[in-house]
Amino acid sequence: MIYHLFRFFETLGWDIPGMGLMHYLSFRAMLASVAAVLFALIAGKRIIRLLQRRQIGETVRDLGLQGQIEKKGTPTMGGVIIILSILTGVLLFCDLTNIYVILLVVSTLWCGALGFTDDYIKVFRHNKEGMSEHGKLIAQVLLGFIVGLTVWMSPDIVVREKVVDPSVAIIADGEERDVNSETQVTSGRYHQEDVVKSTKTTIPFVKRHEFDYRWLSPFKGAWGWYVKWAVYVLMIVLVITACSNGTNLTDGLDGLAAGTSATVGVVLGILAWLSGNLIDSNYLNIMYIPGTGEIAIFLSAFVGALIGFLWYNSYPAQVFMGDTGSLTIGGIIGVSAVLIRKELLLPLLCGIFFVESLSVLLQRSYFKYTKRKYGEGRRIWSMTPLHHHYQDKKALPGQVLFPKPVPPHHEAKITARFWIVGIILAVSTLALLKIR
């Protein structure tokens, strides 16, 4: 709102000192992040007290994990702090007419409402299972279709494709020069003026090339056009659903999901910034997507909100985010990656979420298979999601392929090591901008 207020003052011809700073994405991104952090720190304490007074505490089942019983009664549904902090930074400093910001705000509220409903059923209706898996899946798929169809139909979601002209080259500052000039040039590719609707996305490790979902279409002509968009929309649905559930499974230790997601948010913000800048996208030879700079501001608020939440969620946690927070975080990550056409980088960037989800899938499949074959279910790990495998738990001799570590690790050490792995994956993802 501050951004739009200053723009209104400009139309009136007013000259307020510092007003021009609102034209800089970097300045607004910093303000959005600071606003989100401050809101989380100031309002978070009051929200935690409110949750305590309403006796909205975590229900804990004794699974033999170290420190688990001590968590009983800790306030949950703290994801409300994250959502309100994000919206504070976004509403103050983002361009609210930008289609990407609109989609991200809708996704935040949608996933937040879904997670809140799940937590409400667990806490107030005393149903430990919460919403049915089918119910959550349907809601996530529906959000995916909303985002996917908007990407397809909206005239504001476009790209400017790269073309090659042997007579023109681009120097580092973006100025065009004739190739016969003595000025040293860095690239002969530039972005055409016309914007187009595209189903292209970035491929890791491949230079000067993008993957086009139309290659998956067996048809050509009018049918091929519809099929390629149908395939692209289905991919968007899959990405958003997978990210939301992956983050939900990772939320099991104090600070784990929040800290790991903050690292992911930083990288996605950088990629959004670069994709929305004509000169930087030319220099790095990545897709130029007009308007995605606003996504960087949104993600700055997202990271700020997570950092502020970590103040209360780090070990020992004063509040848990619950599904209200974890489903929202995953939804934001998935939608952001799709909008900047970087969804194929997620298996690397979100490697923690990917492995956590894969561990659950493999554990369930192996347990069912061995139960049919041997009459009793066996396990790959002591417990899944994977982070629980490293905690103290009663051993299951002869039933686990990979026994728990001896001695078991403390919860805080597991979280810190997962953060370190997440940072390594984040740096590796950014390195792909040049390693192609």
Task: Outline the structure in words.
This protein is mainly α. It has a domain at 26-159 and 218-359 and 412-431. It is built from 14 helices and eight strands. The strands form four sheets. The protein has a two-stranded antiparallel ribbon with strand order 1-4. Strands 2-3 form a two-stranded antiparallel sheet. A hairpin with a 7-residue loop joins strand 5 (200-202) and strand 6 (210-212). Helix 2 runs parallel beside helix 9 (293-313) and helix 6 packs across helix 12. The longest helix has 30 residues, at 221-250. The protein is globular, with a radius of gyration of 24 Å. 44% of the residues are buried. The model is unreliable at 165-188 (pLDDT under 50).
Entry summary:
The protein is mainly α and 436 residues long.
Keywords, separated by commas or semicolons:
436 residues; 8 strands; two-stranded antiparallel ribbon; 6% strand; mainly alpha
Distance between the termini: 40 Å
Order of strands in the sheet with the most strands? 1-4
What shape does the CA trace take? globular
Q: What is the H/E string?
A: HHHHHEEEEEEHHHHHHHEHEH
Poorly predicted runs: 165-188
Helix content: 55-70%
Estimate what percentage of residues fall within beta strands.
5-15%
User: Which structural class best describes the helix and strand composition?
Assistant: mainly alpha
What's the main sheet like? Answer: 2 strands, antiparallel
CA gyration radius, whole angstroms:
24 Å
Q: Give me the number of helical elements.
A: 14
Number of DSSP strands? 8
For the residues shown, what is the average pLDDT? 85
